[in-house]
Design goal:
Helices cover 27% and strands 35% of the residues. It is α/β, with parallel strands linked by helices. The protein has two domains: 175 residues, Vaccinia Virus protein VP39 (Rossmann fold, 3-Layer(aba) Sandwich); 52 residues, N-terminal domain of TfIIb (Single Sheet), CATH 2.20.25. A seven-stranded mixed beta sheet has the order 4-3-2-5-6-12-11, sandwiched between helices. It has a five-stranded mixed beta sheet with strand order 1-10-9-8-7, with no helix packed on it. Helix 2 packs across helix 3 and helix 5 crosses helix 7. It is globular. The chain binds S-adenosylmethionine. The site of S-adenosylmethionine has 20 residues, from helix 3.
Length: 251
């Protein structure tokens, strides 16, 4: 089995691995938050970590917003480009690393969006700071940053879902996760088999606590406008398994 970088071989089977996710409702929730938080009627969106464009597609179907969809993985972007073709004119796709790739990135937007655990791929507080600095720099006046993250409570409470498998066409995958409470690191290993070969990907994510992220935001050029517990409109708390953060520029 050949070891490859995260989100290379997985790109072919990602949509099946995520078929438990209701992207239509997630986009609806996000658009609702945007409607409540941003006064501009037709804001531009810079989407970070867009993956294969599953959420992007729903945003384009459900709104008239222009979306600049980005990701660090060329394989994920290849799938996103294919998926989004019917929405030509309403989006652009480009490669961007949201932790270390901001130098020379010339775009800005009214909404900077990062959804479905992309944030958890940042493993250090220095990485969180450079993420916050990057998004702050590319956020238009009056705009918001909206991202979600999963917490230690998510990794602890949902261990029963840590192993599964699936297939699409001639591609199959097996997924196994472990969580180390001491380090806060959530490791997911994928075995992917197709006509192209047998591949192994190891994904390491950090289950950040609410307090850690609050501290990082306080030390940045952004401030917290709201936090939400999961997909509710209740404020996040220390038991939240998923937190949606809404940040704005410090004035
Ligand atoms: C769990 S997937 C989520 C994809 C998509 N947002 C969705 O909801 O299906 C995480 C994505 O984040 C991307 N990613 C991880 N670290 C990144 C980084 N530093 N810069 C840009 N993208 C990154 C991965 O390539 C992957 O596509």
């Amino acid at each position: 089995m050949k070891s490859v970088k995260p989100y290379t071989a997985l790109a072919d089977v990602y949509d099946v691995a995520m078929d438990h996710v209701d992207y239509e409702s997630w986009a609806d929730f996000i658009l609702h938050l945007i409607g409540d938080e941003v006064e501009k009627s037709n804001p531009s969106i810079l989407e970070l970590g867009c993956g294969t464009g599953l959420l992007t597609e729903q945003l384009l179907i459900q709104s008239e917003f222009f979306v600049l969809a980005t990701d660090a993985s060329s394989d994920m972007l290849r799938m996103a480009r294919e998926r989004l073709l019917p929405h030509k004119g309403q989006y652009k796709v480009t490669r961007l690393d949201f932790e270390s790739g901001w130098d020379g990135f010339g775009e800005s937007a009214d909404i900077v969006l990062l959804m479905y655990d992309g944030f958890n791929y940042i493993l250090t507080l220095e990485g969180v700071s450079s993420f916050l600095e990057g998004v702050g720099h590319h956020l238009n006046e009056g705009g918001i940053v909206l991202f979600d993250q999963s917490t230690p409570a998510n990794s602890i409470n949902n261990a029963e879902y840590f192993e599964d498998a699936g297939s699409t066409g001639d591609v199959e995958f097996v997924r196994r996760s472990t969580y180390d409470e001491k380090s806060g690191l959530h490791t997911t290993e994928f075995e992917i088999s197709s006509q192209r070969g047998h591949f192994f990907e190891k994904h390491i994510q950090r289950a950040w606590t609410r307090t850690e992220i609050m501290g990082a935001v306080e030390n940045s050029s952004l401030k917290i406008r709201a936090t939400f517990d999961g997909f509710s409109l209740d404020a996040a708390n220390d038991k939240s398994e998923r937190i949606h953060w809404v940040l704005e520029k410090e004035i």
